[in-house]
Amino acid sequence: MGRGQLRVYLGAAPGVGKTYAMLCEGRRRLERGTDVVVGYVETHGRPRTAALLDGLEVVPRRTLTHRGASFTELDAQAVIDRAPAVALVDELAHTNVPGSRDAKRWQDVERILDAGIDVISTVNVQHLESVNDVVEEITGIAQRETLPDEVVRRADQVELVDMAPEALRRRMAHGNVYAPEKVDAALSNYFRVGNLTALRELALLWLAGKVDEQLDRYRADHGIARTWEARERVVVALTGGPEGDTLIRRAARIADRTKGADLLAVHVTRGDGLAGAGPALLARQRNLIEGLGGTYHQVVGDDVPRALLEFAAAVNATQLVMGVSRRSRLSRALLPGVGVTTTALSGPIDVHMVTHEHAHRSLRRPKDGGPNLPLRRRLAGYALAVFGLPLLTFALTELRGSFSLPTQIMFFLATVVAVALAGGLWPALLAAVAGSLLLNFFFAPPLHTLTIAQHENLIALAVFLLVAAGVSGVVDLAARRSREAARFGGDAEVLSTLAGNVLRGEHELDALLGRLRETFGLDSVTLLERTAGRGGDPPRWQVVTTAGGRPCTVPEEGDTEIPVGDDLALALRGRPLPAGDRRILEAFAAQAAAALRRRRLEAEAERARPLEAVDRMRTALLSAVSHDLRTPLSSAKAAVESLRNTEIDWTAGERAELADTAGESLDRLDRLVANLLDMSRLQAGVLGMAARPLALDEVVPRALDEIGAAARHVRVAIPGDLPEIEADPALLERVLVNLISNALRYNPPGPPVLITAGALRDRVELRVADRGPGIPAADRDRVFQPFQRLDDRDNHTGVGLGLALARGLTEAMGGELIPEDTPGGGLTMIVVLPAGRKGAP
């Protein structure tokens, strides 16, 4: 039996109708005679969804007990034993109750698929692992239930269930998604129009990637190499030259004119690593392409046209943008060049040859060798040619009878090779010409004339001249490549050190400039930025940062200037650096520009963080006011209006009960408002505090009195010989009230909440322990954030300020609030405060 097929309904947001669509598909298949069962469906109390279950066979769920509570889960084995053709399984990302065979529901589904059963399931985009952090950044809510993207990508069919944000909000307002008491808070927080729009875009982009994968897989399976213009993709080829900016903007305009077209940039690096573009230019062009919504790619290949076309075919590109050649007319006449070759081989891909201001201007770097060798080396080569050839001629003349002409030619050829190794190409060519003349004059008959009697000797000398010139060129090229390899090896070592520092996080701008100064032994390295003048003044250079001695105020003051874009430049003072070091300098410059951008982005993020916190606080406060504060106010108002109603003859007991209800509701409202005010004072930094020596047995009873009748479920076991603490009595009482109230809220019936205390050196620890469900270690930081409750099903227990306020007040008194597990289950909150003088026994 083969593996079953998986169909997934991907929802852009909760409430768009994934489960409804899944049940509709199940009913359609059932009507066509397919054996369909419901493995697990969660209707969330929605009547229209529940109505679709009528007539569908439902496999009984498993019941599991965890921490004294009962839960139902998908019974995957029961579904396998039933062996239907299709199983409907809701909420693919669901986490199973501890004790289940599989930790996640998608693992249950994998077992069902392996049994040859088709599965139809649902998942929301926010549960996909790859976008989980993005969703949290957008909505401010972390999704704890996630599943690997690969699970959904492997699905045979993925269908998007989408809805306009406004339509979804209307559906919620009508009570078709959540219970009425949750609607206001949901609309004000997670289900804001901006959030829903962003989630919708995430779902569309993710599904588009899935479609691309399916298309690529189909083409690969069927051996289809030609381009399918299912979607426009514009590829721009970058050489790393200054014309790249022009090409990128032209390609972006072409992509913009074709709605939905992808924009990709590719740079082909030679396989030998000995030639390449400037890192600074490529880094700037990469930023430009990414800023225009495109992607940057780099491939390796010695045959540039073939590498470009292979990349374009791999991404199913439809258009390729290239710049016209920078080579001279003579060069283009001798060799067709990359552009002409690519156009001839492009096939169905349209090639755009874009002109630019740098056309016909070669940007090749000067090569080492020849005139670029040190003067000492060149003089040594010429000296060896001038003195070595006469000495060799004299020696062979003395031994004329011992060697034939071919052997003499070999001696001269060896001398030419030695000259090439010592001084490069031009001294070797001089030696080759001089050697041919000396061979002709002294050793080819007739002697002492430039006339050659025998044709064989003429041919031998001609061959010698050609071989000597060729060997000189090869030896010179090999020596040059060796020098280049050695130099690039040093460059690679410096670049690898630079990359290692970046990976280790050592990418601060000042440290980067300091490393550049140390690497090249410079006096100072200055990063300059061109700023716009004020009041019509011309732009001027401004020092961003410097390392070393006296900084340069303009780039021209430095011995070496490295431009980084249009408005940044590195000025190096100390000594002129050779052109061969420019590649490394450009890499440092690119990293410096990136570090500057990173520093400014971090500063912007730091400035925006308080505003973001204020916005979250405002949103949460509105939610609290609209719901949590309204509840006690409504209860008190209803009780008072009932007491004022003269049409009903209330008994004395009923009046007392109504009065108690009003009083309790107003007390609760008073506590909520007090917490809100204290939290606002904490965040504004204006909370007043008057710490003094204080005994715990003074504060704990007052906190229990404020809690009221529920305090009978609290047991206090505080030793009488504890030292006093340094704290504000009123603030500590507020801390204890919040901690004890939170413990009572989650403590199960039976065991009491336990309050203990102990001294440890100069600290006193006060513990509030309950036997409730506890808090997972991963969520312990989150519970101390304002307006956070881990159990969103409880909407009647406060605004989620208690623990946040307790920690803030404790830290304001110089203490700590630490959560830890209660032995045997539950949560213990530890208030750690500095000890004062010893208390009296």
From TrEMBL:
It is an enzyme of class 2 (transferase). Its EC number is 2.7.13.3. It is a multi-pass membrane protein. The keyword Transmembrane helix applies. It catalyses: ATP + protein L-histidine = ADP + protein N-phospho-L-histidine. Its main location: membrane. SUPFAM superfamilies: Adenine nucleotide alpha hydrolases-like (SSF52402), ATPase domain of HSP90 chaperone/DNA topoisomerase II/histidine kinase (SSF55874), Homodimeric domain of signal transducing histidine kinase (SSF47384). The chain crosses the membrane at residues 379-397, 409-438, 458-479. The keyword 4Fe-4S does not apply. Pfam families: DUF4118 (PF13493), HATPase_c (PF02518), HisKA (PF00512), KdpD (PF02702), Usp (PF00582). One of its GO terms (cellular component) is plasma membrane. It comes from the Bacteria. Keywords: ATP-binding, Kinase, Membrane, Nucleotide-binding, Phosphoprotein, Transferase, Transmembrane, Transmembrane helix, Two-component regulatory system. It is found in: Cell membrane; Membrane. GO terms for molecular function: ATP binding; phosphorelay sensor kinase activity. InterPro entries: HATPase_C_sf, HATPase_dom, His_kinase_dom, HisK_dim/P_dom, HisK_dim/P_sf, Histidine_kinase_KdpD, KdpD_sf, KdpD_TM. Residues 624-837 form the Histidine kinase domain. This is histidine kinase.
